[in-house]
Write a structure and sequence with these properties.
The chain is an alpha+beta fold. It is built from 5 helices and 7 strands. The strands form 2 sheets. It has a 4-stranded mixed sheet with strand order 6-5-4-7. Strands 1-2-3 form a 3-stranded antiparallel sheet, sandwiched between helices.
Length: 160
């Protein structure tokens, strides 16, 4: 996946991180906090600060300890909450650390690590078009899918 864009939910004014499948059509919207959106957006835009911000500091600490982030995986969706694992490697040992997806993505972008989403999470998060009866809920789901599939990152630049 790639960190495709950050946009704002018009109803709640909450930032939404859009992860999009590389070479594919699927997208995963994750509602995140403002601070995490700022951390992701600044890295997406390659904005540098005079002093390290929190995610930069975390990456610096890992490097000082001889560890590196190799990948992150959004691995679960329970009760409308996404979960992620950060995979670290140190001296040939592989460690996995539980994280919020927004923090994991902010770190992955800084570390140049791959971003993955488990198939089960994608299946749970996107309403299926197959076997659904016509209803207001399925119409809303179809409209949301169309919006996500047609997002242009240039149209949704996060404003700081």
């Amino acid at each position: 996946m790639t960190a495709h864009a950050i946009t704002i939910d018009a109803k709640s004014n909450s930032p939404i991180l859009i992860l999009k499948e590389r070479g594919g059509e699927r997208a995963l919207p994750i509602w995140i906090g403002l601070l995490e959106a700022t951390a992701i957006a600044t890295e997406m835009e390659k904005i540098e600060f005079a002093r390290p911000m929190t995610h930069d500091l975390a990456l610096n600490l890992l490097a000082a300890l001889g560890a590196r982030i190799t990948r992150i995986v959004v691995n679960d969706l329970r009760d409308n909450t996404y979960y992620a694992l950060i995979t670290l490697e140190k001296d040939g040992e592989v460690l996995e650390v539980d994280a919020r997806p927004s923090d994991a993505v902010a770190l992955a972008l800084r570390a140049g690590a791959e971003i993955f989403v488990e198939e089960a999470v994608l299946a749970k998060s996107v309403p299926s078009r197959e076997g659904t009866e016509a209803s207001a809920d399925s119409d809303k789901a179809d409209k949301w899918l169309e919006i996500l599939e047609g997002l242009d990152p240039e149209a949704f630049k996060y404003k700081m």
